[in-house]
Design brief:
The chain has about 260 residues and is an alpha/beta fold. The chain is built from eight helices and seven strands; from the N terminus they run βαβαβαβαβαβαααβ. It has a seven-stranded parallel beta sheet with strand order 3-2-1-4-5-6-7, with helices on both faces.
Length: about 260
């Protein structure tokens, strides 16, 4: 349990990839702080499961990632509760699919706020604590869309491209301080976020559900398989090991070969 005694904060972690991250860190002994929306009973069940797995503790924080003051508060409350923050995973994300001419401005604002600006706020709040410790791991969930684009996803693609720039910059600023800053860029992972894109894509492209899955979602992935949340989480866990201390400023693809072409 190599993360015993450390605290991991994971945004957007009540389901999907985020919860898989939290489970991986808890398995290695970390105190975990999860965040996100969802059914209260389900969230409490997940929190209790994580606490039992870690042998340490687990907390739930309901901070809204669209609101900067709440984002900062998430980090500060984690430090107040546990005395430290060692691992920060920026995972919260939302999506909207629409041609640019019809893209609602409020959807753009929300996607940029949650998918990009929240990562600035969490990172800015966490780095000073990591500097004091002389150790830290900041991992952000980007996307294959941090490297390539798809039509009708202007806000999401812009946010993920921006996240890579933020990651590289902070990696350079912290390179001598025992802190690594990296992105993981999955292809299509079968999560609620991906599933919720299907109706919008059906509408905008006039396709059936099966056509969206086979001809849109998995069209770009040569493996023709969805990535699993657990695969992404295991890579994040490796980035927390001492063996990964020289990996910083990187964007690591887990996309079934999507961006190899």
């Amino acid at each position: 349990m190599f993360l015993k005694g450390k605290t991991a904060v994971v945004t957007g972690s009540t389901s999907g990839i985020g919860l898989a991250y939290a489970r991986a860190f808890a398995r290695e002994g970390a105190t975990v702080v999860i965040n996100g929306f969802g059914d209260e009973a389900a969230i409490e069940a997940a929190r209790a499961e994580l606490a039992g797995a870690s042998g340490a503790d687990a907390f739930y924080d309901p901070a809204d990632m669209a609101k900067g003051d709440e984002v900062v508060g998430l980090v500060e409350r984690a430090v107040e509760r546990t005395g430290r923050i060692d691992v920060l995973v920026n995972n919260a994300g939302v999506q909207h699919v629409s041609p640019i001419a019809d893209f609602p401005s409020e959807k753009w604002d929300a996607i940029i706020a949650i998918n990009l600006t929240s990562c600035f706020h969490t990172t800015r709040a966490a780095v000073p604590h990591m500097r004091i410790q002389g150790w830290g791991r900041i991992i952000s969930t980007a996307s294959a869309h941090s490297l390539v684009a798809s039509p009708n996803k202007s806000a999401y693609v812009a946010a993920k491209h921006g996240l890579i720039g933020l990651t590289k910059t902070v990696a350079l600023e912290t390179a001598k301080e025992g802190i690594t800053v990296n992105c993981i860029s999955p292809g299509y992972v079968w999560t609620p976020l991906v599933e919720n894109q299907i109706p919008d894509t059906m509408r905008t492209r006039g396709l059936t559900r099966e056509q969206v899955i086979d001809d849109v979602l998995l069209a770009a992935q040569p493996t023709k398989q969805f990535v699993t949340p657990e695969e992404v989480a295991e890579l994040a866990l490796f980035l927390c090991r001492d063996e990964a201390k020289s990996i910083t400023g990187a964007n690591l693809s887990v996309d079934g070969g999507w961006t190899a072409t």
